[in-house]
Amino acid sequence: MADVDATISIDNPVSAPPESDVLSKNARKKELKNKQKEEERRRKEEEKEKKAASMPKSAVQKQSAADDEDMDPTQYFENRLKTLATHKAAGMNPYPHKFHVSMSILEYIEKYESLNSGDHLEDVQVSLAGRLMNKRSSSSKLFFYDLHGTGGKVQVMADARRSDLDEAEFSKYHSGVKRGDIVGIVGFPGKSKRGELSIFSKNIHGAFSLSSYDAKAKECSCCRERQCEGKTLLY
Q1: Which residues form a coiled coil (predicted)?
Q2: 100-109, 142-151, 191-200, 216-225: segment of lowest average pLDDT
Q3: 8-state DSSP, 33
């Protein structure tokens, strides 16, 4: 009897599922996986939007500055064109004809490097010009820049309390200042509490806004740098 059962088992094997069913099952798995990925992506985007909405304005500005650093030159170029168009529409001239410079950055360093930490010469007014190669902020009322020109660098400390602009105008203006911009700074000499030589700005004049910091950084020729460091900055 056992032999009969064995024969029956051999003669009637269990049939495999059709190949189309296997493919259909794999397709369903893939579709489910893609759907889960899409849901996860949407969830992360919603969390990011909620986080941005709950962040204070200063934190949003910091994030915006970080995004600029990671942005590719083409996208940066497009964003800068939009910024320039916004300035022009508001009646602002992004390309002032000239800016008077009282000394070069190297002359500034030589003259005021001997100041002690925390010293502020608020009764002395100086004007410098150069290229902003770094931007930092601790709040919407306090920004730091590194101003470069002809082999020298000095920190710019922009504090809303010392600015000629009101707080709203100050925050709006500095949120539009970008790394790579050539600017004129009017302020007074001093050193931070940590001993870093700085110019404490009262006014920052935009003289030339770069379209792409990666490409345009190479364009600061000797001629243009001499213009930056001369007695008059012309464009």
Answers
A1: none
A2: 216-225
A3: H
First vs last Cα of the chain: how many Å apart?
106
DSSP single-letter state for residue 194 = T
Backbone dihedral angles phi then psi of residue 120, each to the nearest 5 degrees? -130, 120
CB 57 within 8 A of CB 140: yes
Q: For 40-72, how does the pLDDT look when each residue is reduced to its tens digit (9 = 90+)?
A: 888 877 776 676 666 555 444 454 554 555 566
pTM assigned to the model? 0.55
Rounded Cα–Cα distance for residues 206 and 185 (Å):
9
Could you give the CA distance from residue 159 to residue 53 in angstroms, rounded to a whole number? 25
DSSP 122: T
pLDDT of residue 217: 41
Between helices 167-175 and 57-70, what is the axis angle to 10°?
Answer: 20
∠ CA 194-190-107, rounded to 5°: 115
Looking at CATH, the fold of the domain delimited by 62-234 is given as OB fold (Dihydrolipoamide Acetyltransferase, E2P) (2.40.50)
Domain spans of the chain? 18-54, 62-234
Type of residue at 49: E
SS3 content of the chain, % helix, strand, coil (to 5): 45, 25, 30
Q: Using CA atoms, how far apart are residues 83 and 86, in angstroms rounded to an integer?
A: 5
* Per-residue pLDDT tens over the stretch 151-161: 899 999 999 99
